Every structure is written in C-alpha cells, then in structure tokens.
Automatic annotation (TrEMBL):
It comes from Paenibacillus polygoni. Residues 14-80 form the RNA polymerase sigma-70 region domain. This is RNA polymerase sigma factor. InterPro entries: RNA_pol_sigma-70-like (IPR039425), RNA_pol_sigma-70_dom (IPR014284), RNA_pol_sigma70_r2 (IPR007627), RNA_pol_sigma70_r4_t2 (IPR013249), RNA_pol_sigma_r2 (IPR013325), RNA_pol_sigma_r3/r4-like (IPR013324), WH-like_DNA-bd_sf (IPR036388). SUPFAM superfamilies: Sigma2 domain of RNA polymerase sigma factors, Sigma3 and sigma4 domains of RNA polymerase sigma factors. Residues 104-154 form the RNA polymerase sigma factor 70 region 4 type domain. Belongs to the sigma-70 factor family. ECF subfamily.
Length: 167
C-alpha cells in the first residue's frame, strides 16, 4: 500500500519532468536514441527501487539523481566512438542542416570533468537551486558551490581554452 503511494509520486514526477530529464540525458550523450534509452532505463530503475523514496518532497531530486547516474554509467560503458570519414562527409553534403549553434559551449561542457559538467548542467540548464543540485548529487551545498566555482574558473581559464579549445 505504501509503495503504491510512492509509485504514484514517482509517476507524477516522471510525467511533470520528462522533458527536463531527457535534456539532462541528452546533454551527456548528444544522441536522441541514447538519451531516450537512458530515460527509459532510469524510469525502470526508479520503479524497481521505488521503496527507497523517503518522502514526496524528495522524489524529484531522487529521480534526477537516477538519471544523472544512469547517464554517467552509459558513458562509461560506451566510450566515445570515433566518427569515420564517411560520416564526416555526410555532414558536409549539400542540403545537410548546419549544426553550429553553441558549438564552443557544447565542446567546453563535453571536455569538463563530469563532476563539474553535472553541476553546470543542473544549475544553469535545468535552473535548479544550489540546494536542489546538492540533493540530486547527494553532496553538501558547499561542495556544489565549490564545484560550480571551480567549473566556471576552469571554463574561463586560458589553459582550459588553449588545451580543449583547439585541436
């Protein structure tokens, strides 16, 4: 009976935040199908572990944590694949849409260590408060502030831009 209530809380959370969790997954894998797989696996994992939800107020941060961890697991399992020359040519064929928007930002985020990237994504792209980010990541609020500060400092640093901004 109690798990049915928790399951209802979770389903409500999934329904209300489906676009956000998809965006989080996509920000890690940059691929629609993989992001959908991550969301689906996150929902499955969440439903299997619904009894671990403490209260209704913690459902959102708990589910976001599942999505972030599932995204990181996916990345570890599927290291970046190298694009073949044929795939590069397909990007340049006539009529192919351009994909330049925010490429520097995307590249910079991709190159950040995951602990920094996650904080940046949750804080600025998902517009979460520092306390919510701390709940999702299960870390102290001061840890989130420190990681956020370090991530922004790293992004601004010329060493990072020189090291990761040019190939």
């Amino acid at each position: 009976m109690f798990n049915k209530r928790k399951e209802k809380w979770l389903i409500t959370c999934i329904t209300e935040h489906k676009e956000n969790v998809y965006r989080i997954a996509f920000s890690y894998v940059k691929n629609k199908e993989d992001a959908l797989d991550i969301v689906q696996e996150s929902i499955y994992k969440s439903l299997c572990n619904v009894e671990t939800i403490r209260n209704q107020e913690s459902v959102k941060s708990w589910f976001y944590r599942v999505v972030v961890n599932t995204s990181l697991d996916f990345i570890r399992k599927h290291k970046k694949e190298i694009i073949t020359e044929d795939e590069k040519l397909e990007l340049h064929i006539e009529g192919a849409p351009d994909h330049y928007e925010n490429m520097d930002l995307v590249k910079t985020l991709d190159e950040l260590p995951s602990k920094y990237r996650t904080v940046i994504i949750l804080r600025f792209f998902e517009d979460m408060k520092i306390e919510e980010v701390a709940d999702v990541l299960e870390v102290n609020v001061n840890t989130v502030k420190t990681r956020l500060y370090q991530a922004l400092k790293l992004i601004r640093s010329s060493d990072f831009i020189q090291h990761y901004g040019e190939e």
